[in-house]
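Running this now, will post back.
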Amino acid sequence: MRLDKFLKVSRIIKRRTVAKEIADKGRITINDKVAKSSSDVSVGDTLVVAFGNKTLTVKVTALLETTKKDAAGEMYEIVSETYKENY
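Update: finished.
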């Protein structure tokens, strides 16, 4: 499954266009390699997504073409969530 589609279907990022922009800016890695929006995501992959002041690390547990809101959380497991402090 494409990275941008996974991020949208899993609801880590709400819109696919936003997921594509973030990926194409080099702010997402798959298994420690910088990923593009068209990169393939597989079960067991570790994704690191750098938002503005938050870095989210998740492990892919399932690939589903479509999900309901309450089932989206089953597609990944949060490994860590860190925040940058502004001074």
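The mean pLDDT is 89. More later if anyone needs it.
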